[in-house]
Design brief:
This protein has about 240 residues and is an alpha/beta fold. The chain has 6 helices and 8 strands; from the N terminus they run ββββαβαβαβααβα. It has helices at about 80-95, 115-125, 140-155, 185-200, 205-215, 225-230, and strands spanning about 10, 20, 25, 45-50, 100-105, 130-135, 160-165, 220. It has a 4-stranded parallel β-sheet, with helices on one face. The protein has a two-stranded antiparallel sheet with strand order 1-2. A two-stranded parallel sheet has the order 3-8. The protein is globular. The relative contact order is 0.15.
Amino acid sequence: MPETNPTAEYRQLGESGLRESVPIFGGMTVGNSKWSHNIPRENLVTMTKAFFFVPSGPSTLSMLRPDLLHTKEYVNQGVLSRAALFNQVDASLWRLRTSYIDVLQIHTFDPTTSFAETMKALHDLVQGGKMRYLGAANVRAWQFAEMQRVTELNGWAPSVSVQVEYSPLYRVDVSGPPFDKWRRESDNKIIERVEELAQKKGWSMAQAALAWVAAGVTAPITGANTPARLSESITTGKGLSEEEL
C-alpha cells in the first residue's frame, strides 16, 4: 500500500537554479474549472507548453487538425511564430490564473518559423516576466542544438530542459497508430523483470518502473488521476543499484 502522505524529493532542473519535485505531476488529462487551492504561488512550479492551439471544445484534438490554423478562429494561435507565442502564453496565464509560468517548453519543432524568430520571442517573454525558464520537448538533437546556438550567439535566454519519452518499454521503431504501442516479446521480458524487482523490493510495479526512470532523468512526469496513484508515484528513498538498473 502506498504511503498516505509521502514527501517528494526535489532536484535541480538542468543547469538552472530551479528545483522541481520528483515526480512532476502531469495535468493534461485532469482538471476542472471549479477547482481551487490555497497553496502559495511561490510553492508551486508551473510547467506548460506552446505550439498546439487550444480548441474551443473538447471534441477537437488540435494536433490532428493543423488545417484549423488557417481559419479566422485559430489563426496565429498555434506553432512558434512570435505572434502565436505571445497569444499562447497570454492564454495560458489566463487559464492557469497566474501572472507567470515557471517553465515554458516548446512542444515540438516548427518548420514554418525561423529559429531566430522563435527564440527571440521566447527571450522577450522571459524578459517581460511572463515566464522564468525555457525548455523543449519532442525535438531532434540537431534542432535543440540549433536553438541553443542561436540563443548563445545573441545573448538570449537559453533552454534549460528537454522533455522526452523515457521508460523501460520506450522504443522508437514502432509502426501503427500514433497512440498504440504494440507489445513485443522483449517487452514481455522487461515487464517480467519489473515485476520480479517490485516483488523483491516490496514495491508496486509502477514504483519499480518510476525508480528506474528517476535514475536516468531529473524527474519523471506522471499522469496520476487519483490521490492514491499520485502518492504511489512519489518514490523518495526508493533507489536501484547498478546491477538492478
